[in-house]
Amino acid sequence: MPSDENAPLMGSKPKHWSNVKKRTMFTRTVIALALLFGVAGGVAWFTKATSSTGGGGDTNDPDFSSLRGFCDDIEAIQPSEYLERHARLAETLPEGGALVMEPGPTMLYYTNIEWSLSERPFLVVLQRAANSTITTTVVTPMFEATRALEAIQEAKLPMEISIKVVEWIEHGSPYETTAELLEEASHVFVEPGVRLFVYDGLADILSQQHGVVTTMASRALQTLRMVKSPAEIAIMRCANRATVAAAKKVRHHVKPGMTEADIASLVTQALTAAGLTNTWVLALVDENAAFPHGEPGATKRVTKHSTVLIDSGGELLGYQSDVTRTFFMDNGDRNSHNQTIVDAWYLVKSAQQAVLHDAHAGSTCAEVDLAARHVIDRAGYGRYFTHRLGHGIGEEMHEEPYMNQGNTHIKLQPGMTFSVEPGIYITHEFGIRLEDIVVVTKDGNLELLTDSLADNPWTL
Ligand SMILES: *[C@@H]1O[C@H](CO)[C@@H](O)[C@H](O)[C@H]1NC(C)=O
Ligand SMILES: *[C@@H]1O[C@H](CO)[C@@H](O)[C@H](O)[C@H]1NC(C)=O
């Protein structure tokens, strides 16, 4: 996917319990009726869908069973890896430094603790002790302490990482409780994702009562999570290969007459068969693909001359995949497809190849972006490559480092993983994007986690 989304931070909770209660009986009735009609409607839809699959006369149900078990031999992150993460953090934090985080990817990275964000702060404090080990403290609302202990147990951390739990009382201040832990700290860093009211509450008390400075995590601290371990790379390699395999399988089942929504549903089935969870799909046909973030619709249909873009991904063992393939419905006859669009496809591919060839450890993210952009510029399509080249990927589908021509301060390091996804988008005409995931290897080159680039726009 070419750009950022901001997930909502928390669900809203009903404010007036008495009203909620009064409505309960009514709500139950409505739910029961809805279920009844839902089931009837579902049966009708299913009958219709199976009797006219795809509207293109394809009577075979797509069979994605060959994708089953695709990543079964991939190991989850082992407990000992959390010790390595703490050791790297200890090397990067200054003496007496501390890192504070809220629930989210960084908390999972260092502690494997899963917790939902709510208005009541739940924090993890990682501090570098005098002996250069990391001490871990969880700050939890007191009434949630039992659940917090369960979450810590479920994290299955190695014995060497012991976690201290500190509770804050409902009418008390989570910031005072946290500041007491940090009064001796030389410097407190907060993760960039920490919400402003939490940062503000903590920084205020730390500076006024203890003279401790609180800032956002330094670039060096943020870089730690960008550099992936062999175990993380193995998971991401399989997740992304599975996503390519799903796109290739689906391509055989895309028939004239299908809608974008039909294609999206096939991709979801294929990704799920391959064992990915939290899957998502953009399936866009012809001029709709000119919207980099278009929504698959139920009206636009594939013709036998269509250009089809599938951008999809999912999660495996806590890590994300993200792959785009654009293909043509003509049967591999180079002259039967619109020549402008064929040329654009090969141009986008050569922009990907330029990145693989030119970028290496030490390149700035700006240089990585420009390696692709120059190719597209030279062919006269520069103004139609409207977004950055790519984004980091890992626990999050979009994370640092971002490959854009303004990002001159981050340089590639071995272990960094990111998308290479140039595109050409001509509004009301067509859109082409190809997206593969790469890792920077130990010897400084880029290696495809997707195995290989799309070979051609017909067979992929
Ligand atoms: C290092 O110091 C911390 C905090 O004082 C202590 O809890 C821990 O046991 C020490 N670890 C080692 C290996 O000495
Ligand atoms: C091919 O596609 C381009 C871009 O959409 C369009 O301008 C051109 O008219 C098309 N050519 C033919 C022969 O349809």
TrEMBL record:
Keyword terms, alphabetized: Membrane, Transmembrane, Transmembrane helix
Domain Peptidase M24, chain residue ranges per copy: 235-442
Transmembrane portions of the chain: 25-46
This protein's name: Peptidase M24 domain-containing protein
Organism expressing this protein natively: Lichtheimia ornata
